[in-house]
Amino acid sequence: MPIEFAEVPHPGSTQRRTSLPRFGTLDALGDWLAARQDRSRPAPPGRPRIVVFAADHGVSARGVSARPPEYTTTAVRELREGGTTLGMLAARSGAGVRVVDIAVDSEEHNEFKIRRGSGSIDTEDALTSEQAEKAVDVGRRIADAEVDEGADLLVPAELGVGSSTPAATLVAALTGTEPVAVVGRGSGIDDNTWMRKAAAVRDALRRARPVVTEPLELVRTAGGADLAALAGFLVQAAVRRTPVLLDGLSVCAAALLAEEFAPGARAWWTAAHRSTEPAHALALEHLDLEPLVDLGVAEGSGTGAAAVLPLVSMAAELRGSHDTA
């Protein structure tokens, strides 16, 4: 049975300027924000929130990452303690961070946890049907909670070893791209690891193609709990009329799924940056989203979007100031 979402509203129209645009991308970003806020002059986000969905992936046991599988548990703990690159950038950007353990392979239990790690997608399904539905619902519930608590700009992110392998598989499936064209270097892998990763994506893609027209089945078969939750989160943010700043490969792979779940949801998202992952560029092209910057960032986990967050406030301030200049 397909998941049903509330109708996605259309954002407001950009109001006519009282002055000529002078700041290029910043002007366009200010216009985008004004339309999503349904204001003639945008307001800088007062409560931006970064929400990290953490999960492990069984495919990491195939040697597709430069990091060992147990790294995820350590990274989650460090992020909660204010560490990691994302924690530092979030603090500088004035954004709060929420970490949701949805499928980390650890002893921790919480109300949102679906399972300990997702299945190895090259040989088995990532999730059961029930787990896939629950993961999407977790994403929706988290988005509702953040908006209810006052979030006015959302930044979804992922954290987990091996996450770029299912993300690349989903992008390949949804864009009709061959495995070798979507596999990047991720966490800094060498040639042998790249070949193992390409083989894993190839095998996972064979399993994914028969269900490519069914987004819930696709994420169940070849995705993971984090990607399912991210998709639910992205749709619900649109339903709640809340702008979203997209990060790297995993988030944009989930965005492809979200647009399949609820066509038109992408009107509420903008792309923060273009990473070095080839599948990320393909996903952005498919979503018809032009990234704000290209920082050459290889890592995901929200770092690129967190670095770009100050530009959103600057764009709002500039739009308001030169409208009255």
What labels describe this entry?
325 residues, 9% strand, mainly alpha, three-stranded parallel β-sheet, 46% helix, 11 helices
What do these coordinates show?
The chain has 325 residues and is mainly alpha-helical. It is built from 11 helices and 5 strands. The strands form 2 sheets. The chain has a 3-stranded parallel sheet, with helices on both faces. Helix 8 crosses helix 9. The longest helix is centred in the C-terminal third of the chain and has 21 residues, at 303-323.
Write the layout of secondary structure elements.
Layout: H1 25-37, E1 48-55, H2 71-80, H3 84-93, E2 96-103, H4 129-148, E3 153-159, H5 164-175, H6 191-208, H7 215-222, H8 225-239, E4 244-246, H9 249-261, E5 269-271, H10 278-287, H11 303-323
Parallel strand pairs: 1-2, 1-3, 4-5
User: Roughly what percent helix?
Assistant: 40-55%
Biggest sheet layout: 3 strands, parallel
Integer-rounded radius of gyration: 19 Å
- Tally of helical segments: 11
Query: Which structural class is indicated by helix and strand composition?
Result: mainly alpha
- Specify the oligomeric state: single chain
- Describe the strand arrangement of the main beta sheet, using strand numbers: 2-1-3
What is the approximate shape? globular
List low-confidence stretches.
none
Q: Write the H/E string, N to C.
A: HEHHEHEHHHHEHEHH
| Mean pLDDT over all positions | 91
Question: What percentage of amino acids are in beta strands?
Answer: 5-15%
The separation of the N and C termini measures 55 Å
DSSP E strands, number: 5
